[in-house]
Amino acid sequence: MTFYQHRGVLPHKRHTVFKKSDGSLYKEQLMGMKGFVGVQSILYHHNAPTEFFKSEYVGKFSPEYETQTELRPRAFFTDISKVDGGDAIQSREYILGNDDLIIGIAEPTKPMDYFYRNSDGDELLFVHYGSGKIETTFGTIFYKDWEYIKIPIGTIYRIVPDQGVKTKFLVIETTSWITTPKRYRNELGQYLEHSPFCERDFFGPDELETHDERGEFEVLTRKHGQMHKHYFKHHPLDVVGWDGNIYPWRFYILDHEPITGRIHQPPPVHQTFEGHNFVVCSFVPRLFDYHPDSIPAPYYHSNIESDEVLYYVDGEFMSRKGVREGSITLHPGGIPHGPHPGKIEESIGAEKTEELAVMIDTFKPLHVIESSRYMEDEDYQYSWVEIESMD
């Protein structure tokens, strides 16, 4: 998913003289994917983006996974997280991951007093609740409840929650890119008529605020699973203008228009995004199936080659018992999964659902991060067992 946008002031032609009022040149930077043949944006800085005066090696970014356990459904209650505040990076608590992505939550209680740059892959933040702003190289995005925010690989940013307002993010960090499904775009990249969203639903930075102050500014950089610090004597968000197809954007989950039918529709109709070896789906309030004998609840199914993760946002999820707002469930490939006992019968005749959830399907196995085990509901795996009457 790429379409051209621009902010700020730009020269008429790229790679040409672009002068400041004092006669000096703005510094042009091309930020591109796949060398020089992928999508790209061009940014114009007050200062050279290469101009750091000190660097430090911080250490390895290596969440520790649990040792191998039995194959079973898993559930985690993120509302009992023990991470005691911090900023939007410090408060990240990771729960699941593999070589393609890592999934967790963040509940920042203070603004970042430094900047962050993930040069390993795109990040997707889902705002469960809260409001604030994300200051980036491309400008500022103001976030609110139930928005997805994509931060492209290599983007320098910091997150500033609104004071006195609690913020909670579902965090998806990748080692690739995040885009929309190819089947919803034509050969020129425009969304097709049957797509559940269109270009009008995606918003780039709300404003470009250019900083030209001097001082000491820290940028924490992640690359190849290693953490580094770079220090600049100029503010890193010093861009006066940019244009192109790479930039952070936001998408409100309720702008995903549900696709419904006479009988139960499979999960791919809920897909909103995709990356390398994973997809992200949005379960939004919708009308149920309208065949007179339809069963709205999903049928039992075995996605033998994929793992399914659900993050429960709001409402009562129509096929599950015992989960609550902020729960994360993992249904691994290789064994079937489906509705809890009674949920199939309960769904018959229902006209709609108000559930809201984010689903992540991966095509490589996910592993549980050891430090998150205290959040696990150990009884979840047995919740499909119907207790027989003792009469």
UniProtKB/TrEMBL annotation:
Coiled coil: none annotated. GO terms for biological process: L-phenylalanine catabolic process; tyrosine metabolic process. Keywords: Dioxygenase, Iron, Metal-binding, Oxidoreductase. Residues 109-251 form the Homogentisate 1,2-dioxygenase N-terminal domain. The active site is at 264 (proton acceptor). Fe cation binds at residues 301, 307, 337. Pfam families: HgmA_C, HgmA_N. SUPFAM superfamilies: RmlC-like cupins. GO terms for molecular function: homogentisate 1,2-dioxygenase activity; metal ion binding. One of its GO terms (cellular component) is cytoplasm. InterPro entries: HgmA_C (IPR046451), HgmA_N (IPR046452), Homogentis_dOase (IPR005708), RmlC-like_jellyroll (IPR014710), RmlC_Cupin_sf (IPR011051). Its cofactor is Fe cation. Residues 278-388 form the Homogentisate 1,2-dioxygenase C-terminal domain. Gene3D superfamilies: Jelly Rolls (2.60.120.10). Belongs to the homogentisate dioxygenase family. This is Homogentisate 1,2-dioxygenase.
